[in-house]
Amino acid sequence: MATAKSEVLIGVDLGGTKVAVGKIKDGELKEEYFEKVPAASEDPQETIGLITGIICKLIDNDVVGIGIGVPGLVNKEQGIVYDVHNIPAWKEVHLKRILEKEFQVPVHLDNDSNCFALGEYRYGAYSGEKDFVGITLGTGMGAGIIKNGTLIPDANRCSGEFGNILYLDGIYENYCSGMFFAREYDRNGEAVAIEASKGEKWALEAYHEFGMHLGNGIKTIQLAVDPRMIIIGGSLAKAQALFIDSMWKSISDTLFPSTLKNFKVKFSETANVAILGAAALYFDAQGNQSI
Q1: pLDDT at 3 over 60
Q2: In order of start, what are the domains of the chain with their CATH numbers?
Q3: What is the DSSP string of the chain?
Q4: What are the Cα distances from residue 179, in Å, to 7, 55, 137?
């Protein structure tokens, strides 16, 4: 694993159901806390207070910056979070301003999938790979794009939103995330994986189909970005054995077989990579690409 910068940082991974906060020192996660996010709260301050309270447990005079990944659109320059899908009260939250006033250190924000990709680049098993797309497969489908060792700049904060590209009767996210199992089988991906492990035919077929759709999504990413590698993370990545064959079969059915010669798909091997990636926003904001 590559050597990371030695600054002490705090990383925050805000999800729809929980928030995870960790302190990173010498490139390693030293402490971490998890809390549930208030369900369907109509007060944005409730979740902000939760985040602030956890950070208070970790912050000290050695901390030089805070990075936060959120499941929504982010104005990175101004630190404004828009339309967080699983936290309805968060329509427009000036989170950077709020937290910098509270803690008096620089605060950097980005989409959680971008944080996943940045975490893989700086701290993951494939750290140093400067051209890849990191895909997160969970409740939804997200992606972060690393080109030339940095997150690609985007004009309207929509880069990596491959899950929202039209596909079949909906969008890719309907078929390449937990939404597929919820829509088709009224169960989450983990429950279907458990049944598949028991040899249940319908569950095995469900993951076979999921892999086919994911392979189609990866081909779309290839045509749009042409990365050297895809790194897959998220809760559904744990079931990779159930869909990897059909995924590759789908990827291989391409009009451009020469593009597959050096193309790789890997699965994340790094625990808490989203927290690490959120903290690494500190380096990315400074234009520091070295690892």
Answers
A1: no
A2: 8-116+272-285 (3.30.420.40), 127-267 (3.30.420.40)
A3: -PPPP--EEEEEEE-SSEEEEEEEETTEEEEEEEEEPPTT-S-HHHHHHHHHHHHHHH--TTEEEEEEEESSEEETTTTEEE--TT-TT-SEE-HHHHHHHHH-S-EEEEEHHHHHHHHHHHHSTTTT--EEEEEEESSSEEEEEEETTEEPP-SSS-TT-GGGSEETTEEGGGTSSHHHHHHHHSS-HHHHHHHHHTT-HHHHHHHHHHHHHHHHHHHHHHHHH--SEEEEESGGGGGHHHHHHHHHHHHHS-S-GGGGSS-EEEE---TTHHHHHHHTHHHHHTT----
A4: 39, 32, 10
pLDDT per residue as tens digits for the range 211-235:
999 999 999 999 999 999 999 999 9
Rounded Cα gap, residues 241 and 106, in angstroms: 41
pTM equals 0.89
Hey, CA dihedral for 190, 207, 165, 220, is it positive or negative?
Answer: positive
